Amino acid sequence: MCRAPVNQFLPMSLVDGPGNRCAIFFQGCNLNCSFCHNPETIKIIHSEEENDDIKFYSVDELFEKVKKIRPFIVGITTSGGECTIHHKFLIQFFKKIKTLNLNILVDTNGLIDLSNENMKELVELTDGFMLDIKALEESSHKRITGSSNKTVLKNMHYLAKLGKLEEIRTVLMSGEDNLKIVDTITKELSPYLKIKNIRYKLISYRPFGVRSEFSDLHSVSDNEKEYLKTVAQKNGFTDIVLI
After folding, report:
1. pLDDT of residue 215
2. What mean pLDDT is predicted for residues 59-73?
3. Class of 1-126 per CATH?
4. Rounded CA gap, 59 and 120, in Å?
């Protein structure tokens, strides 16, 4: 039986995509971001015995939880951790969710190549992906997350071309080349806006909830954030959210 670890099940959320949605946070992540606000979801576990707070669900069990709240939501969003490391589970789960006529979004760090054949069905079943662009330069991405961003940027173009890039997000931290990130990314994505509008969330780094060794990082000023918004607008983006 296919089972997957769930760290948190939110029956209703207004911040995990458009509309009132069920948000499901899967346990385990393939990155180790310095600014992670859910560090408790990083560790990959294989049984409930490793962590009493994590529940392993079968596809049917998780589907039944969503089915009970179907009248009150417009869709589901799977997140983490990194939910795509459980892609075999998600494929089976999404097939059942489709019978409820619910919108399906996937919140991902983009580290797994979604153009691979074994991910094809997951992409087809998903209505949209919410992708983090944590850094533009590979060296910066490795410093922040521990891994290369080559696959992340590949996924960005792949999903945009398919019209399945729902949202991109960048956490703004002092000392990073935020202008280069926002300007380059929005310029690269602007040709795809005629296929589907893409939301861009510019998120201020906040020290709350992060691990203590990273609590001394700082965000950018409100003025800089507003300027970055105008840069994205100049490059054709109309749906920009400052957080």
Report:
1. 61
2. 97
3. alpha beta
4. 19
